[in-house]
Amino acid sequence: MKAKELCPICGGELEETEVKEDIWLGGELLVIENVHAKVCDKCGEKIVSYDEMQRIDRVINEFNRGKMKLKRITAYVASI
Ligand SMILES: [Zn+2]
């Protein structure tokens, strides 16, 4: 069995999981689902691998060229 990777911030255990990545592009928010990341079970630190960053970059490129099928969500913004 492979030893668990530890969080560089707090030393907690990293759990491999899928997360949503929120990316602001100008005034628009692009949410990318099914991003593979390792998340710390103690402090919640999220670590995305280099390969996964490349995938995200590709998605942003496609998004910028208007070539993506997108789901719409509703968001509300409040100022405090
Ligand atoms: Zn941690």
Q: Key terms for this structure?
A:
80 residues, alpha+beta, Ubiquitin-like (UB roll), 1 helix, globular, binds zinc ion
Describe, in plain words, how this protein is organized in 3D:
The protein is an alpha+beta fold and 80 residues long. The chain has one helix at 50-64; strands at 14-25, 28-40, 46-47. It is built from one helix and three strands; from the N terminus they run E-E-E-H. A hairpin with a 5-residue loop joins strand 2 and strand 3 (46-47). The chain is globular, with a radius of gyration of 15 Å. The mean pLDDT is 93. It binds zinc ion.
Q: What is the overall silhouette?
A: globular
Characterize the biggest β-sheet: 3 strands, antiparallel
Distance between the termini: 48 Å
Small-molecule binders here are: zinc ion
Say how many strands there are: 3
Report the CATH topology name of the domain at 14-64. Ubiquitin-like (UB roll)
Backbone structural class: alpha+beta
* Average pLDDT: 93
Task: Quickly describe the structure.
The protein is α+β, with helices and mostly antiparallel strands and 80 residues long. The chain has a domain of 51 residues: Ubiquitin-like (UB roll) (Roll). Helix content is 19%, strand content 34%.
Q: What topology emerges from the helices and strands here?
A:
Elements: E1 14-25, E2 28-40, E3 46-47, H1 50-64
Antiparallel strand pairs: 1-2, 2-3
The structure holds zinc ion (ZN).
